[in-house]
Backbone:
């Protein structure tokens, strides 16, 4: 079986984002059954239905990349007890026009990150609320609230301890199973 194509969305736009570090760590640890690719969201104009006819090229490209993926991993920080605006905008862009959502039925996983102790709990759960509406089955376990992330993954995406590496590998292993269980026939 060929590797499943996984779109990885990083919620932070910051060049040195901890979420980007985690996304890069996952890419380094991916098993041969997964092909993780970061899909950029910073170039997406804010969603405005008035701009749908014709849609801006970045929207079209983004929607096509999501449609071409088998599943999605969201890696996000928490901003003001919720997800970053750029990530919410990406959800909105991908869900439109109405009835043609690029997200529909895509299995997904969530990893929230924070240098603080709570690990982005608020962002994680606000994102889950949106995913329910978007009809994306979100993996429940292992829960991935990565607190103290600044001490766990370096700027190049290297995991700095065996316990964190084992957690990331467990997540990827369970995600492989989650995808196969929740893939819809095309």
Residues:
């Amino acid at each position: 079986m060929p590797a499943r194509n996984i779109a990885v969305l990083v919620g932070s736009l910051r060049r040195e984002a901890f979420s980007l570090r985690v996304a890069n760590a996952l890419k380094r640890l991916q098993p041969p059954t997964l092909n993780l690719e970061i899909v950029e969201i910073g170039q997406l104009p804010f969603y405005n239905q008035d701009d749908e006819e014709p849609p801006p090229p970045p929207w079209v490209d983004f929607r096509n990349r999501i449609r071409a993926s088998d599943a999605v991993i969201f890696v996000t920080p928490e901003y003001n007890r919720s997800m970053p605006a750029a990530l919410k905008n990406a959800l909105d862009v991908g869900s439109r026009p109405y009835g043609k959502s690029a997200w529909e039925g895509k299995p997904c996983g969530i990893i929230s990150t924070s240098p603080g102790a709570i690990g982005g709990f608020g962002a994680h759960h606000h994102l889950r609320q949106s995913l329910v509406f978007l009809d994306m089955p979100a993996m429940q376990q292992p829960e991935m609230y990565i607190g103290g992330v600044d001490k766990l993954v370096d700027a190049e995406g290297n995991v700095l301890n065996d316990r964190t590496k084992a957690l990331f590998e467990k997540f990827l292993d369970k995600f492989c199973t989650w995808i196969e269980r929740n893939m819809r026939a095309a």
Strands lie at 4-10, 34-38, 71-77, 108-114, 145-147. The longest helix spans residues 162-182. The mean pLDDT is 96.
